[in-house]
């Protein structure tokens, strides 16, 4: 019993130390955490290429290269359109709020009749507060973009460092898991492996399945709404 308690105390303390380290280095660790998630998402594709006779290194190069080209094309081709739609949305939002207020007032007047005057006062206050909050929020976002040098550096680092880390993680994925397996406490290794397999099956089904569905639906909505003539079709799809 004492041995079990010591093990529990040790692992709880180790978890707390890990959380403190992650909290202290969260800005630095972002590219690496993103790389782990992406590598976890793409690892089955690398395994399939390896079963087809493609070396692990070449498969990682192909996967990262194709993904990089697709992301670059998306940024270059869709980036300006998204920025323009965001600008148009920010410009037209006050007018859209006024139209919404007019529609709500007409609907409330038809429903409430003589009691509409008291409701209109509350409605005017709510819409006025919404407009003021939107203006202050937009100003805060612009100020943070202009002064957020560290955020820009982190954003650039995310695109420069993450692909390199993803490549090495895909290449060394199975040796890395084998090394982690060697560090497991031998008395509980079998149970930990089974729990890890169960977690992996559930998380993989969710991340990969939902991720693919989100990508397909986002592309479908963006194309369909843009083709239908919606002003912010691509923005809504994304």
Describe this structure in words.
The chain is an all-alpha fold and 238 residues long. It is 90% helix and 0% strand. The chain has eight helices and no strands. The chain has helices at 2-24, 26-51, 56-112, 116-147, 149-171, 173-182, 189-227, 233-237. Helix 3 runs antiparallel to helix 4. The longest helix is centred in the middle third of the chain and has 57 residues, at 56-112. The radius of gyration is 26 Å and the shape is extended. The mean pLDDT is 79.
Main β-sheet: number of strands, strand sense, barrel status? none
Average residue pLDDT? 79
Give the CA-CA distance, first to last residue.
54 Å
The number of distinct helices, counting runs of at least 4 residues, comes to 8
Helix content bin: over 70%
Shape: extended
- What's the Cα radius of gyration? 26 Å
**Low-confidence regions:** none
DSSP strand count = 0
Strand-pairing-aware structural class: mainly alpha
H/E series: HHHHHHHH
Strand content: under 5%
């Amino acid at each position: 019993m004492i041995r079990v308690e010591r093990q529990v105390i040790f692992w709880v303390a180790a978890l707390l130390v890990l959380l403190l380290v992650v909290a202290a280095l969260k800005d630095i660790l972002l590219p690496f955490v993103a790389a782990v998630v992406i590598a976890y998402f793409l690892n089955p594709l690398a395994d399939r290429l390896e079963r087809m006779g493609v070396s692990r290194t070449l498969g990682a190069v192909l996967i990262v290269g194709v993904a990089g080209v697709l992301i670059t094309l998306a940024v270059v081709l869709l980036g300006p359109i998204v920025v323009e739609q965001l600008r148009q949305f920010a410009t037209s939002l006050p007018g859209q709020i006024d139209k919404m207020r007019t529609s709500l007032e007409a609907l409330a007047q038809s429903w409430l009749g003589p009691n509409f005057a008291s409701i209109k006062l509350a409605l005017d206050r709510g819409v006025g507060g919404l407009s003021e909050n939107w203006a202050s929020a937009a100003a805060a976002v612009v100020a943070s973009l202009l002064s957020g040098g560290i955020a820009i550096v982190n954003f650039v680092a995310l695109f420069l460092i993450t692909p390199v880390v993803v490549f090495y993680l895909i290449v060394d994925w199975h040796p890395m898991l084998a090394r982690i397996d060697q560090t497991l406490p031998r008395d509980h290794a079998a149970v930990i492996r089974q729990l890890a397999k169960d977690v992996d099956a559930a998380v993989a089904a969710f991340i990969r399945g939902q991720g693919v569905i989100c990508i397909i639906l986002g592309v479908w909505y963006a194309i369909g709404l843009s083709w239908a003539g919606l002003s912010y079709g691509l923005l809504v799809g994304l």
